[in-house]
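Justification of resources, computational component.

The compute hours requested in this renewal are based largely on the per-chain cost of generating structure records like the one below. Each record pairs the submitted sequence with a full structure-token output. That output is archived, and it is also reused by downstream analysis tasks.
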Amino acid sequence: MKRTDLTFKPSLVAIVLATTLLSACGDDNDNMPTVEPTPPAAVMQTFTVTVTNLTANQPLSPVFLAAHNAETYLWKVGQPASVAIEMIAEGGDASGLEALENLTASVTGTNPILPGMSETLTLSVEESAVANISLAAMLGNTNDGFTGVNSYNIAGMEVDAPIMMRRMAYDAGTEVNSEAKGTIPGPADGGEGFNEQRDDINFVHGHPGVISQYDGLADSVLMPSHRFDNPVVAIKIVRTE
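The structure output for this chain reads:
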């Protein structure tokens, strides 16, 4: 009597179907997009800088404050002022400084700082880029006088450990200190600001001060109250985080 083979054998159709499904799954895995790991959030350091006007009657233009690399300087004593410094020294216009290369962060105040008043500005800088800061502002009742901090190193500052300093007045050397009517943009005159024509010694130096009409300069629009002694500003720098 012939034995019946009871072993189950998969059909050819079933084998082909299984092979196709496995191949499809393999293709799907091959085409899966690679998921890149999320980069860590940048670590920031925040600094507040408070500027106090120490003069009797010299309003400061809105202060320009910037963070930058250690090789950047806004001005150099004994060398011609850049156009950006000329713009702020003659007219309180910070737009030229705001456009400088190598700035990692910058901010400009919204209002002039009146005598005896203060303003606090804040900068946040990536920890890996913390190096130096600078600031600049015009003495409004002058022809081309300005003050500021020029490339001060803040790397390594501790949180809540303030740095205090005072700074002198500089003369951009781009406009003669005639003090004449129509040449000073501050409230003492309301005259012209930036003028690209240079008619002075053309290098930055310590400001000699103003003379005023009561000191023998008959054409001056300034008064004795507009005179100033150095320093003209007090500055407080604090790393807050």
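Residues 1-8 have pLDDT under 50 and may be disordered. The first strand starts at residue 44 and ends at 53.
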